[in-house]
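#structure-requests
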Amino acid sequence: MTAGGSRSTGAFGIIVDVRTYRQPGTVVTEHHVSVPLDHGRPDGERITVFAREVTATRPGAQALPWLVFLQGGPGFAARRPVGRSTWLDRALDDYRVLLLDQRGTGRSAPATARSLARLGSPAAQAEYLARFRADSIVLDCELVRRQVCGPGEPWTVLGQSFGGFCAVTYLSFAPHGLRGALITGGLPGLDARAQDVYRHTYAIVAARNAAHYERYPSDVAAAREVAGHLAARDVRLPDGSRLTVERFQAVGGMLGTAAGTHELHYLLEDPWDGDGGLSDRFLAEVAERTGFARAPLYAVLHEACYAQGAATRWAAQRVRAEFPAFNPAAATDGDGPLYFTGEMVYPWMLDLDPALFPLREAARLLAERDGWPPLYDPARLAANAVPAAAAVYHDDLYVPAPLSLRTAAAIRGLRAWVTNEWEHEGLWASGGKVLSRLIAMSKGEV
């Protein structure tokens, strides 16, 4: 139920659309703000970004400082809140929170196969999508901040995973807009190329596979049996796309969460139906874990979020050859274990997933694109004056801790908390404990 709403033209000629309603323990206000597609051409095409303000209902909450949350990804909208759920409960003690749908996601000019088709050629689509990285997201944030909070009021950014990459870009190019920076599992390598990142992550996910099979030794045979079945047959997922051995390996992305190894075991525990085929339940879960229908930009822009200068040229695929443990032939042609892969995007995914079919040529152009602008400013970061704190997860499957710690040392004043108590999703899983520590660190209280 809408409690109220208004539409106005604010400063800088930005159209603002605002609506307010209530949830248990919170007041929610929706903001729609018009921003340039290309911030280098402020008078050119415009898109609309969406942000959801969440404020506690207690007296005085409207006077608290602002916290803008940047979701992980790329390509994922901010999670939809229900009252004071997860880390939001802790945040609302100290802040008014703004949950931003980054451009191209959720309600912020969503970039889908259908919307991109209106642009025409794959080259036009790739040129459009090149404006959907962290540098553009940060400039969107600055326009939203000036409009929603006021030009003279800086805010604190909370960045989870890819949102942390954006936070470091924010510290690099718009620190004047920040009161503080809190980062969870998202300190990027400042000069790391995509292939450098994957050399770390392949080694980490190989260790996770070994640990999984040590915990659940029966899964070695179970995974090998499924892989052999897929290698010998044309197996189709519920959407009609083919399930190959390589696609089955991609379910290993779950190994980066605290419960992931157990969830993988349960997936492998009973994959068969009564007729010698893979069960509908198994196929549906694999489809959910390996498909990109909910976030096609994740696949299309995943490697581009690392790119500075040179093209990525499908780095995950190139580097995979350096790690023979991931060759499925060890399981399909021999008696070795099947190693599952992690957060990697491969070119064959564009040919298998119906959600990616229409975007595959644009994605290939982006993979070959040279001349990407820088995402970070090492000199500015070395002189940083914004209070900053980061949780670095020691065993992080997605954002390698060695690269994060090198970056932590390069940002003046940033305090890093290295922990293996939590996995990559610690912000969500800790019940506010991770956020509480980062807030205390940023204030110098611990």
